[in-house]
Design goal:
Largest sheet of chain A: none
CATH topology of the largest domain in chain B: Nucleotidyltransferase, domain 5
Number of strands of chain B: 29
Order of helices and strands of chain A: HHHHHHHHHHHHHHHH
CATH architecture of the largest domain in chain A: Orthogonal Bundle
CATH superfamily of the largest domain in chain A: DnaJ domain
Distance between the termini of chain A: 44 Å
Helix content of chain B: 25-40%
Oligomer: heterodimer
């Protein structure tokens, strides 16, 4: 907490003013301290409540120092937020221009779909609901939908337990029943990626274990498998490349792994330096130079840069 | 602080003015020294060269029509060339002249006055009434203006306050003040509408009230629509018929015009309670070249009055429609409907309002006093630390700048909550343009020249470039009183210029200074005597106390730097006090008393701690 100025405002309020000032650059909902997507009435209520604290008139004739400016900019910002969010046209235009706010609204309303809690159902109601569901599911038109939703919910349960291959099978079945179902498609994609990542990670861990036990051959195989499972696993790619180099492997293969590592993580200095060295050895000087320069820019004091790059060119 | 300084709220009306204050948490009207709640907004110079203000000025208006100014509010902050000024001049019996910069001067006897000076005389009268009531000087006030007043009219009203020796804490809108007075101390929640038809102006506002927050959603009005216009319709009718019968135009005779005005107003008021009234003006005219004097006898019925003024009432309703649309509110959404202003006593007005808003107006609000009471509530809210009232007022008219092609680019739309500021980027419109003229406009018209020009300024020294390449940030700012300032900045060079917009019809800063100096003499005249004497002796006592404390403090602080510093300051204060004591100005005396009191409490505090 910075030292407080000597002004005629209670310390508590000073802190509130500083806190609100710090978030004036947030979106209109956040400035007013309300959930994204709040109604016009909620906006106005919040605006009124904040006005009670932050309207410049509340501090009329007092010693304010730098707080005069702070309060002024806070209130003007509140007015702006209120004006836009209570006018349907302006609100629409604001959301159109700021997709991330729209996303925030989706997130807020998605995680909190119902504002009023639903009264718990009685046993009798539950039984009637179950009976109705069963009857609907027997209907030929609805059978398809109910089958898919059944598989979907099962798949989701598997996903939660990280059993991706099970989920994958179920979802594949579901796409055969209804190839147009968007939810199934996106979930399938999702699961595929997650499964790959999981596999890649397991392979990578396997490689590390093998390395610890001194079995470099097995380790290399595991790292390669990890890269195959997910090309974005740059740690595995780098491990594979260094292992290969240590065992004087094929320069082209080493460069390929180094290239993958750089692509997946362009800002890592070690990857750049390794790729540069390999390319240089392969005779591609111009390309190598490009990567060395990038490495130098990213981390001029990095040990690898000092060791390999600075030696070459007296910068 | 021993006791809080009194602060007052003033409704500076077209025909009548009222002053109020907050008495133990209840807004209360202060009666004038003539024991009346209303003080006519009339100023006159008597034949013997005495300045008369209020009831006494109104009473002699007929015999001194030439040198009696009423309805100055209709002229304040306006330009002489404005159409509304020219209309007014035709029916006003006093002389209206053009000033040096298209402002308005009023002739009283052999002297010319600006409009704010005249309004200041009314304000000073109210200030004196309040001082008589409190038994001590009053310096701070909140003054109301019609919501639809533009920047120039607000500035001019503020100037009037300064000339009257008041620190104007705030200019607030009349309908808003009415809502404040209505909602203060009650647990009102919801939307309310205020319909304010006064002597010269019409306003309507919609507010959203929630536990102490008074949020104006929309406001609209006409600064040239009020009781005076209803009177003028009656005058025209009388004059027209009289001309038809006798071939004499009574408007040419100032005294006759003043008598007609009086009679018309009286008749209008009577018709609010009765169906028919007689207008009798004997010896209204003596024909040129001798002959018998002419008398005017007419009967005016309520129906006839309503026929004469029907379009005026219709205009108020049109404005109401616009405001409800702006507020996105239906008449049925409103919780309450408040009527303000003397004209809302007219049955035809009440009927029209009832039909439009589909409800009976709120009872228990005094249409003449409620605005001043609201001003007192706001004055109290601004000066007390624990008030629950917050007023969120809006700017009544849109603000913009003139752009190439003669159009307006609006920067702040009407009904925006103030204070507010907006910045927008403009470009040069010609190749190698090195200066831009920024014309600040207020109003709703699309075409620049149909709006009110608040002021203009020139930004020079722009770099030479192709059209559209130089970018200029124009920032508009409206403060809590609806007063506008504008600044322009060249993005490239950082070159900046700003103005506090002063309407060209208003007073310049030098003029205001000159008037205030002149008024300082006037103030002195009003003040010298008993009050100054008592204050002087009080000042003397305080001076003695400080003189006694200095050696004590010197001893206690034992020559420390802080002690020496404080003593040096106290000695300077004493020297100032001595000058004030010998000087003629009451304000200086009270000022010195304040600083001495502060010195004393500081010294005593230090001595206490050391002991």
């Amino acid at each position: 907490m910075p030292e407080m100025e000597k002004v005629d405002i209670p310390e508590e309020r000073q802190k509130e003013i500083l806190a609100l000032e710090a978030k004036l650059n947030s979106n209109h909902f956040e400035v007013l301290g309300i959930t994204a997507g709040a109604t016009s009435e909620q906006v106005r209520d919040a605006f009124h409540a904040l006005s009670r604290k932050f309207h410049p008139d509340r501090y009329h004739g007092r010693q304010l120092g730098s707080f005069a400016r702070r309060i002024d900019s806070i209130f003007k910002r509140l007015v702006e937020a209120n004006n836009i969010l209570t006018d349907p046209d302006k609100r629409q235009a604001y959301l159109d221009a700021n997709p991330f706010v729209r996303a925030a609204i989706r997130a807020a309303t998605g995680t909190n779909p119902t504002l009023q809690p639903v009264a718990p159902k009685t046993a009798e109601e539950e039984a009637r609901d179950a009976e109705r569901r069963a009857r609907f599911s027997r209907h030929p038109y609805l059978a398809k939908a109910s089958k898919i939703s059944e598989q979907l919910s099962k798949a989701k349960a598997h996903i939660a337990k990280q059993e991706y291959s099970h989920a994958f099978t179920l979802l594949n079945l579901a796409t055969q029943i209804d190839p147009q179902n968007v939810e199934v498609k996106t979930l399938l994609n999702d699961v595929r990626k997650k499964a790959e990542l999981l596999r890649s990670e397991t392979d990578y861990k396997r490689g590390l274990d093998a390395l610890n036990q001194g079995n470099e051959e097995l380790a290399l195989a595991a790292f390669k498998a990890a890269v195959n499972a997910s090309p974005s696993n740059h740690v595995a790619a780098f491990k594979a490349a260094t292992l290969l180099e240590r065992n004087s492997g094929d320069i082209k293969e080493i460069s390929a792994f180094a290239q993958k590592a750089v692509e997946a993580s362009p800002n890592t200095v070690e990857y750049r330096v390794l790729l540069g060295r390999m390319l240089e050895q392969a005779g591609m000087k111009a390309l190598a130079k490009k990567h060395f320069e990038e490495a130098l820019r990213l981390g001029p004091d990095h040990p690898d840069v000092k060791k390999y790059v600075k030696k070459r060119w007296p910068f | 602080m021993a006791e809080r300084e009194p602060v007052i709220g003033i409704d500076l009306g077209t025909t009548n003015s009222v002053v109020a204050f907050m008495q133990d948490g209840t807004p209360t009207v202060i009666r004038n020294r003539g024991s009346s709640n209303l003080t006519p907004s009339v100023v006159a110079m008597s034949k013997t060269g005495k300045m008369l203000v209020g009831q006494i000025a109104k009473r002699q208006a007929i015999t001194n029509a030439n040198d009696t100014v009423y309805a100055a509010k209709r002229l304040i902050g306006r330009k002489f060339s404005a159409a509304q000024t020219q209309d007014a001049v035709k029916v006003l019996p006093y002389t209206v002249l053009a000033g040096d910069h298209d402002d308005i001067k009023l002739q009283l006897a052999d002297k010319q006055y600006s409009v704010p000076e005249i309004s200041a005389m009314v304000l000073r009268e109210l200030k004196l009434d309040a001082e008589a009531f409190f038994g001590k000087p009053v310096r701070k006030a909140v003054i109301t203006v019609p919501a639809y007043f533009n920047d120039g009219q607000r500035q001019a009203t503020k100037d009037a306050g300064r000339i009257a020796g008041l620190e104007v804490l705030r200019i607030i809108n009349e309908p808003t003040a009415a809502a404040l007075a209505y909602g203060f101390g009650k647990s009102v929640n919801g939307k309310i509408a205020v319909f304010d038809l006064g002597g010269g102006t019409f306003d309507v506002s919609v507010l959203d009230v929630s536990s102490g927050v008074f949020d104006v959603i929309a406001t609209g009005g006409d600064t040239y629509l009020g009781g005076e216009d209803f009177d003028n319709r009656v005058i025209e009718w009388l004059v027209f018929d009289f001309a038809k019968e006798n071939g004499v135009d009574l408007r040419k005779d100032r005294m006759a015009l003043q008598r007609l005005k009086d009679a018309a107003e009286k008749a209008k008021i009577e018709l609010s309670s009765s169906k028919e009234t007689q207008i009798n003006l004997p010896f209204i005219s003596s024909p040129a070249g001798g002959g018998a004097a002419l008398h005017l006898h007419k009967t005016l019925s309520r129906e006839k009055l309503e026929e004469l003024c029907g379009d005026l009432v219709a205009r108020t309703i049109t404005i109401c429609e616009q405001v409800l649309t702006d507020a996105r509110v239906k008449a049925t959404d409103l919780k309450e409907m408040i009527l303000v202003g003397g004209m809302t006593r007219m049955p035809k007005v009440v009927d029209a309002v009832k039909t439009f808003f589909r409800r009976d107006p709120c009872k228990g609000v005094h249409p003449d006093e409620v605005v001043a009471l609201g001003a007192a509530v706001q004055a109290d809210a601004l000066t007390s630390q624990d008030s629950e009232v917050v007023l969120l007022d809006v700017t009544p008219q849109s603000l913009g700048v003139a752009v190439a092609g003669g159009y307006v680019r609006k920067l702040i739309p009407r009904n925006t909550t103030v204070p507010t500021s907006v910045t927008e980027v403009f470009n040069t419109s010609k190749d190698d343009q090195t200066t831009v003229k920024i014309m600040v406009l207020q109003g709703e018209a699309e075409v620049a020249h149909q709006n009110e020009l608040l002021g203009e300024f020139i930004l020079t020294g722009l770099r030479k470039a192709r059209r559209g390449e130089v970018e200029i940030d124009v920032t508009f700012e409206i403060n809590s009183e609806g007063i506008v300032s504008v600044s322009a900045r060249d993005r490239e060079t950082g070159l900046q210029q700003s103005i506090q917009v002063t309407a060209s019809g208003g007073l310049t800063e030098e003029e205001l200074k000159r008037i205030m100096e002149e008024q300082a003499d006037l103030l002195l005249e009003a003040r010298t005597g008993e009050e100054l004497q008592t204050k002087r002796s009080e000042l003397k006592a305080l001076m003695r106390e400080v003189e006694d404390l200095i050696p004590q403090l010197d001893k206690a602080t034992q020559g420390s730097e802080f002690g020496q510093d404080a003593i040096a300051k106290a000695k300077a204060t004493l020297e100032n006090a001595r000058k004030a004591f010998e000087g003629p100005l009451l304000s200086k005396v009270t000022e010195s008393m304040d600083t001495l009191t502060r010195t004393i409490s500081l010294f005593k505090g230090v001595l206490d701690r050391i002991k």
